[in-house]
Amino acid sequence: MRPCMLIFAPKLAVLAVLFAALMLSGCEGGGPAEATKAEPGVIPATAQRPGDAAAGYDALVNRAVVTCGLPYRAYAASTGNPAPEFELPGRRGRNAELPYAVTAFTADSGAELVTSNCLGCHAAPLNGELVIGLGNEFLDFTGDPVMAVEAAGAYVEGEVEAAEWQRWADRISAIAPWAMTDTVGANPAIALTLALMAHRDPKTLAWSDEPLMELPPTDMMPVSVPPWWNLGKKHAMFYNGEGRGDHVRYMMLASTTCTDSVAEARAIDAWFKDVRAYLATLQAPEYPYPVDAELAAAGEELFKSECKKCHGTYGTEARYPNKLVALDKVGTDPILAERAYTDGERFVRWFNASFYGEDSSSQPALGYVAPPLDGVWVTAPYLHNGSVPTLAALLDTAARPTRWRFDGDDPTYDQSVLGWSFRRLAQGREQFASLDEQKWVYDTTRPGFGNQGHDFGDVLNGDERRALLEYLKTL
Amino acid sequence: MAFVAVAGAAWLFWPNATETPATGIDPAAFARVLNSDADGFADADGDWQFDFPRDQGPHPDHRGEVWDLSGLLVDDRGRRYGLRLTFVRIGLAPPARQRASALAANAVMLARLVLLPEVGEGGATAQRLSRAAGGLAGAEAAPFRVWVEDWSLAQGEGDVLVLRADLDEARLLLRLTPSKPVVTDTQAGLFAAADAGADSAQGPGFHFYLQPRLTVEGRLTLGARAGTDVSVGSLADERSIPHQPTALRAPSRPASDSTGSGEPAQVSVLVEGTAWLEHAWGSVSGGLAGQRGQLSLNRFLLQLDDGTELMCLHLRRRGGGGTPIPTCLGIARDGNTRLFQRRELTLEPGNGAWSSPPDGARYPLWWRLTLPALGLDVALEPLLPQQELAPGMASGGRIWSGLVTLSGSRDGEPVTGGGRMDLSGYAVGSGT
C-alpha cells in the first residue's frame, strides 16, 4: 500500500500530478539519520496507531493532504466544472459538487482551492461504481504537467488567488520531470515523491526552489497501484517492503508537495491516523461473475500446496505470512528494488531524519513482498510493474505477451483469463508515429518493464491452472 | 473532463477568452462604444463543420469576425515591405433582428492597413470605420468580398484573391494565389485537447482557419496622393494586374508624376511575395487576446522559404517567473500539420530588446526558434523595430505586432523566410 497519489481526473492526467508514494532506500552510513537495510524473510509486525475509521473516511473524502492547489474559480472556469461522475457518499459542501479525484479546501489566505486527493489513483470505476481502494491502472501520466499548471494561470484573477496559483504551479513545475511517465498505467508516484524530498530540508520541511540534494533519475520505473484493502494485513508498505514502522507517515507523504513546516505536517498527521484506520477496514470486492465451486475447491488444494507459503491462506483460517521474497527467488524485474537499495541512500536518510520518519524507518531490501491476494481478480495487470496483463498469464510464463496494450481505454473484463482485455503487439512503441499511440504500448523488453519471474505456475498443467484460477476468483 | 486540458495538449489560443484581440483593432471596445448587444448571436463553442468557399465569407450569426492578412513583399528592385490588412466586422444585431433596408446598418466594419518598407520612405498606416450599409462597407460570401470603402479583399478568378487599397501615400493592387489548403482549428487540433473529448465544456469562443500561404504578385504605387492620382487609377482595374510571373521579373519603369506641380514623384513598382490570411469568427472578445488572467501570450506566424509554415505560441507569466510554454503547429509542404509541444522545441528571446519611445517599454524583438524534429534552428528579427501598436489601438494593453524576417538552417542547409510576431504584456500598464 502506498500513500496517496493525487490526480485530477482519471483520463486527464495532464494535471495529474500530485503525489504519492515513495521509495526510500538504504543509507550506507555517514548521515545524521539512522538507516538500515532489510534482508529477505518475514517482516515483523509494528503496532499501528489507533484511529477513528468513520472520521477517517470523512477526512479522506473532504480534507486536503496536498495543501496547495488551483483557485476554485479558475478550476471551474477551465474545466467547465464537471458534475461528479460517481456518487461518493459523505462528501460535504463544495466537495459534493466535485469529481471524486479532487478536493476543495480554503487556504489560510482565504482563497478556495481545488487540489488532487488520494482517490485519483486509489479509487477506480468498476461496473459503473467507484471502488475505493482499487488502484486505477488506466491513468495517463504522459501529459506535460507544466503546460497544464502554467496554462491554468489564464483563468486566475486577483492577487490572492494569483499567489496561490503561483505557489502550486511552482511546486508542480519543480517536480514535473518526475511526475510523468511514457506509458498509460505506469504511475510516477515514487519518483515524484523523491523529487519533492530533494527540495525540502528534512528537519524544518522548508521548501527550497533549488534542490538540496541530488534529484532522482528521470528514467522512470513503471509501478502498478496496489489495492488499499490489503493494508490491514501488511506489516510493511511498498513493493520492496521498505516502509517499516508507523504507516501513517508514509501515507501522508503527498503533503510534501506544499506542507512547508513540521507544525503543518503534524496537523495533517493528527487526522491521517484516522484515514489509516478507515483504510484498514476496506474489503476487496467480490468476483461478480459465476464461479465453478467444484473446480475452485480443486484449485484451493493446489493453492495450499503451491502458493500458501508466500501468499498465505484465505477463508476461515486466514493467515498472511508477510514475506519479503529475495529477488533471485521471485525472479521478477529487479530494477525497482535494486535502485532503492543501491542508489537511494540520500532519500532514506532524508526520510529517517524528517518528521515523517519519527516513528517510521525506511528499510529497503533486495526483494519484493509477496502480497495478500484478496480481490486479486480485479487488480490486473500484475507484478509490481504491471507487466503481466492477466492472472492466467501470471501463472504461465509462456502466455505472457512481450508487447501489449489494453484493448481500448475502457477494456472489458475477460473472465477466461482474469484481467482487462488486451491485444498482443508484434512491435514496440516505434511502430507508431504519434505519442498518443505509443503511450499505450507496454513493452516488457524495456528496463524496469520486464515480465520475467514468478514462474511458479509453469509446473501446472492446463487443468490444474484452470482450477487454480477458479479458486483465485473466490479470494 | 477537460481540466486545463485545452492547454495541455494542443492549445494555440486562449480557450474561451474574455479579453481583447491582439489584431491591432479592438472589436470589443468598438462593440461597447456601439452599445452592441451580444444577445441573439450564436455561440462559437463546439465543433464547426467547415465549408469553403462559404466560410470565406461573413458569419452574421456570430457577433465578431476578423480577416487578417499579413505578408512580406519585395519589389523588383529588391526593396522589402511588410503588409498587413485587417478587416473586422462587428454585428450590431443578430440576423433575427436585422432590418431589411439597404441603408440599415446591421454591422460595423473596421479596417486597418499597414505598409511598411524595410528601408526608406513610403510607409503607411491607416484605419477606416464604416457602417455596413449602403454599400459603403461589408462582407459577402458568393463571390467572397470584404471591404471598407475602397479597401477590399475579394475573390478574383478561381481561388485567387484580389486586394485593392488606396491610401494617401500608396496604392496597392495585388493578386493572392493560395498555394496550400487551409488549416482549420479542428484539423490542427488547435483547441481540442487530446483528452478534452465530448466532456469539454469550454470552447475557444470562436472558430478559425488559416490560409497558410498565398503567393502574392501585383503593383504598388508610392507617392503623394497616390490613391487619387489619375495616372495610376487604371491600376484599380483588375485586368492590369500582372498575371504572368515573368512580368514581375521585368524591371518596371517608375511612373513619374510629370505634372510639375511640385508634388513628390509617384513610383509604381511590381511586387511579389508571400502572405497568409487568418479568418476567425465568434465572440468579439474571443481568443486572440494578448493577455489573460496571470498570463501573457506571444504569437508567431512564420513562413519558411522551403514551403513550410509554423504557427507558434509562447505563454509566460505576466508577473515573471515560472516556465514559459512554447507550442508550435508545423504545416508541411504537403499541407499536413503536426503539433510540437514544450519539450520538443525552444522558442526564446535573445538578449537584445527594443525600447518603445513613449515610455521605454522593452520588447524582446529578436528570438530564436529550434525544433529538432524538423532540423530547424532559426533566428527571428523585426523587419523594423517600430511596429508597436499605438496606445489605444488595443485596449487589452499595448502590443508589438509586426513583420519579422527569419534566417537560419534546416537540416544543415540555409533557410530564410518571414512572418508576423505579436508580443503582449511588455509595456508598463499593459496588464489587465
How is this structure best described in words?
- The complex is a heterodimer of chains A (475) and B (432).
- With 475 residues, chain A is α+β, with helices and mostly antiparallel strands.
- Chain A contains 16 helices and 15 strands.
- Chain A has helices at residues 53-62, 72-79, 119-122, 145-151, 159-175, 189-198, 248-251, 262-279, 293-306, 308-311, 327-330, 335-343, 345-353, 391-394, 435-438, 462-472; strands at residues 41-42, 70-71, 102-106, 112-116, 123-126, 129-132, 243-245, 323-326, 360-362, 367-369, 403-406, 413-414, 419-420, 422-424, 442-443.
- In chain A, the strands form 6 sheets. A 3-stranded antiparallel beta sheet of chain A has the order 1-8-10.
- The radius of gyration of chain A is 21 Å and the shape is globular.
- Chain B has 432 residues and is mainly beta.
- Helices cover 6% and strands 42% of the residues of chain B.
- Chain B contains 5 helices and 24 strands.
- Chain B has helices at residues 5-10, 27-33, 185-188, 230-233, 245-249, and strands at 64-75, 80-91, 107-117, 124-131, 137-140, 145-148, 151-155, 161-166, 170-178, 183-184, 206-222, 267-282, 291-292, 295-304, 309-317, 325-331, 337-340, 346-349, 354-355, 362-363, 367-371, 376-382, 399-410, 413-424.
- The longest helix of chain B is centred in the N-terminal third of the chain and has 7 residues, at 27-33.
- Chain B is globular, with a radius of gyration of 21 Å.
- The model of chain B is unreliable at 1-24, 191-203 and 227-261 (pLDDT under 50).
- The interface between A and B is large, with 39 and 36 residues.
Search tags:
heterodimer; A: 475 residues; alpha+beta; three-stranded antiparallel sheet; 16 helices; 29% helix; globular; B: 432 residues; mainly beta; twelve-stranded antiparallel sheet; ten-stranded antiparallel sheet; 5 helices; 24 strands; 42% strand
